[in-house]
Amino acid sequence: MCTMIAHQAKIEGRGKSGQDWFEVREANVSYDHPYDLPLEHALNIDFVNEAAGPGARVAVELSVEAARKLVQTIEAVLAQAEQRGVLEDLPQAVSR
Amino acid sequence: MYQTNQYEGMIAETITMQGHKGETINAYIARPLGSGPFPAMVTIHHAPGWDEWYRECTRKFAHHGYVTISPNLYFRDGHGTPEDVGAKVRAGGGIPDEQVLGDLDGANKLLRSLPYVSGKVGVFGTCSGGRHGFLAACRLKNFDALVECWGGRVVMPKEDLTPKQPVAPIDYTKDLSCPMIGIFGNDDKSPSPEQVNLHEAELKKHGKNYEFHRYDGAGHGFFYYDRPAYRQEQAVDGWKKVLAFCEKNLKKA
Predict the structure, then answer these.
(1) What is the pLDDT of residues B101-120, one digit of tens each?
(2) How does pLDDT run along chain A (96 residues), one tens digit per residue?
(3) Run of H or E including A15
(4) What is the DSSP string of B194-210?
(5) Do A2 and B81 touch (CB under 8 A)?
(6) Which of B83, B103, B42 lies closest to B226, judged by CA?
(7) Which of B46, B73, B77, B84 to mutate to test the interface with A (most CBs of A within 10 A)?
C-alpha cells in the first residue's frame, strides 16, 4: 500500500523525455509503489517540471540496494570533481 | 450466473460529474444495457492512478449487473498518462480525505439519480482506494455495502497523520454504516497482518457486520494481473467472495 513517504527537492537541471529535453525544476523522491519495477515498494525518483504539467517527467525506479549505490556513486563523483577543483557552483549554471 | 442464451450488452464511457464542493471532475461509467433496475457500485481507484485496471474493474462490475462509476480522484492534479498524474500525486503525499469523500458522495448521488438504478449502491476500493472506501462507508451514510481490498493506512500511527489525512480511518469504525467484506494478503506489509488484526478487532468491538478473507501466499495487490503480485488462485477465490457478498447485500437485500 502507498506509504506516502515522499520528499521534494527544488533543483535546477535538464531532463530528456523521449526526443526532447526540458527544464527540470523538481526532483520528487519517494519510497512507495513503483510503476514498472517488480517490487511492492521502491525508491522512485521523478525529475519533473511541475509548471509544465504531469508529462514533463523523467522517472527512475530503483531497488534499495541500487538507490544506495547511486547515492554513494554521486557522492564519490562529486568528491573527485571537488578534489580536482572542477566543481561549478550553482550561480554559474545557465538557465535556458 | 451468466447463461449462454442470455442477452448481454454494456455501455461504458467517460462522463463529467459533480464532486467535492460541486466541482466538476470526470469519471468512467459502465452499465448493463436495459431498463434495470440495477444495483450500483462506486469503484475507487488505487494510489497509482485512474488506470486501465480500474476501467476494466468498472466494466467487470457492469458485466456482473452493476451500474458502476469510477470517479477520477486525481482530476484536479492535471491530465496526462495515468502514470504521470499518479506520480505527481504520489510526490504530493496523496490527496485530501475530505476531497475524496466529496467526490465519492457526488458519485453516489449521481448513481442514485439514474432511472435504472435500484437504490442500492456499494463501494469498492483497493490499496488507498480500500482505505478511502472504508472512510466513505463510515463518514457518508449512503452506501449499502463496502468491499475493502487491502486498504493500507486504515491503521495509522499519530506521526503519519497529515493535514490531508488528519484522522486514522480505524478511529471511525463505530460509524461504519453498512456491511463490509475485507480481502487481504498475509504477506502484505501495508496493511500488515497485525494491522488487519487491529482493524478486525475494532469491527468486532463495535459489533459491525463484516467478513474478512485473509490469503496465505499473497501480498499486496494480488488481484492485479499486470503486476508480479498477482496470485491467480487467491485472486479467483477473492473475486468469488466479493461478488457473492455484493449479490447478497446489493442485489438480494
Answers:
(1) 999 999 999 999 999 999 99
(2) 478 899 999 999 999 998 899 999 999 999 999 999 999 899 999 999 999 999 999 999 999 999 999 999 999 999 999 999 999 876 655 544
(3) strand A5-17
(4) HHHHHHHHHHHHTT--E
(5) no
(6) B83
(7) B84
For B194-231, what is each residue's pLDDT tens digit?
999 999 999 999 999 999 999 999 999 999 999 999 99
AA identity, residue B67: V
The answer to whether B221 and B126 have CB atoms below 8 angstroms apart is yes
Integer Cα distance of A64 and B74 in angstroms:
28
**What is the interface pTM, i.e. ipTM, of the complex?**
0.84
Output the CA angle B48-B18-B128, nearest 5 degrees.
Answer: 25
Closest CA to B170 of B146, B124, B137, B134: B134
* Cis upstream peptide for B37 (omega within 30°): yes
Q: What's the sign of the alpha-carbon dihedral B222, A2, B26, B85?
A: negative
Cα separation of B105 and B123, whole Å? Answer: 11
Rounded CA-CA distance B172/B199 in Å is 11
Q: What is the pTM of this model?
A: 0.92
Q: Do B90 and A33 touch (CB under 8 A)?
A: yes
